[in-house]
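Researcher: Please translate sequence to structure tokens.
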Amino acid sequence: TRIFGGGVLNKHHTVAVDEVSLAIHEDKPTITAVAGESGSGKTTLARLLLGMIRPTSGSIRFRGQALSTMDRQARRAFRRQVQAIFQDPFEVYNPFYKVDQVLTTPVHKFRLAASRAEAQQRIEESLQMAGLRPEETLGRYPHQLSGGQRQRIMVARALLLNPKIILADEPVSMVDASLRATILESLVRLKRELGISLVYITHDLTTAYQISENIYILYRGSVAEVGNVERVIKEPQHPYTRLLVSSIPLPDPDIRWGQETDIESKASTAGAARAEVQGCKFSNRCPFVMAECRQKAPPLYQTNDDRAVACYLYKEAPVVSGQAIAEHLAA
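Model: Translation complete:
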């Protein structure tokens, strides 16, 4: 859980991440998607997982050790094993330096090569794994490369460190559609060929469905639905997940956008979604709201072996903890 505000000068507080559990096993590489609309807590969760901010309660553990208790050596190992690819690749670069700098810096900092020739070889190999030609990439300034090339250089930078996990926060939202498939295929190949796990953070359910195995649907910081991506996207159970799935345009001119479900027409506006509510956070937008929804937030109900839903519509199913379902999906 991560809460912002609530200090002496600012009584108002925002629960950005609310009791979210996620697990990845080192010996079983997976691609896990974290999806939701803007403001659902995805980027805050990413910053927590990277150790950039500390949780208000709970802990982030790497190989059993909490990040908050790590010494300098353990944190250095963590920073090497867990790499990030961010939304806007241009912000990562210094426009006054050639793009080579973002590749040579980690080689030098983590002492990845014994000589300049070895360093150059490692850099070129990582660029090739990311789908780039070194002779067309190195020696150039950021503005001389396309958005897709800049993003793939960041993939190459992550690969240099031979990580166990890459956390990709909206990695294709800033590139055009023609390049998305190329970058996503590069990420999938990392998992398949190098055994690297991915946490793929996105608002795009289409790409989440295409590349991930498990998916977490977040709504205002809480897990609305979690499980196998095939089951969650094809048979969504939580009203919010249904709303997200129904917002995906279908390639059929005879079907009106949003016609597939009546949730969107019955749901209130996004502005109302920001209002403080008691109980279930989605209750003021949900067409199936019941009295109990406004009284207490629902727990996670395990509706399938590989899926859980935080909704009273499924209260006949057994209650499961977030940690238990996370461990089950990672196993």
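Researcher: Any highlights?
Model: The chain has 13 helices and twelve strands.
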